[in-house]
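Example record for the data management plan.
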Amino acid sequence: MNQVRLPKVSVAVIGLVVASIFHATPVLGVILTRQEFSGDFILVDATSPFLTNSLPKESEYSGFVVYSESGTLSDWELSVNNLNLNLNPGSTNGGNLTPDVDFELGSGSNWNLVVDFGIAFDAPRYTLEKTSSSEISLTGEVGRAGTYIYQDSAANITLSSSSTSIPEPTSLLGLLFGVGAIASRFSRLPNRPT
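Corresponding structural encoding:
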């Protein structure tokens, strides 16, 4: 005797419908600001005769910072030619010593970037600061050797903005629901006799 099965709404179909609806929802936009800078640093201060005599009096430099409206740093780089200084998120100080990086966004698109290699013997700490629309300074602290400051009062600074998209959580949930439902559906299919 044939059994009559009551019509059931497939969980997989529901999942796909939910996924398609949520997949069409808007995305959250994050505005990122990129500041590129370059110019010529001039040595304006050194706290020891050793630094005064050994450091170059001037040097070309370039770099950039990328940050969100909330002040979250997403990328950065600094190169100072005559100091052989090349800093970026993957930098190390010799071996495996990686720096702590702190970024503070001030008013008028000014900012402060600190790259600190820690408390190891003579581990350096660098502070790059944009203090006005055309002024950037670099402070280097090199342990017992002392501290030096480079400054550029006529820096070349350009700003640009871009928007990145982050999927909303509901969109991801909808897709996961649909895929999970289909997988569950297939796992419950009866094995056919061979």
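Summary line stored alongside the record: The helical segments are 11-23, 49-54, 169-187.
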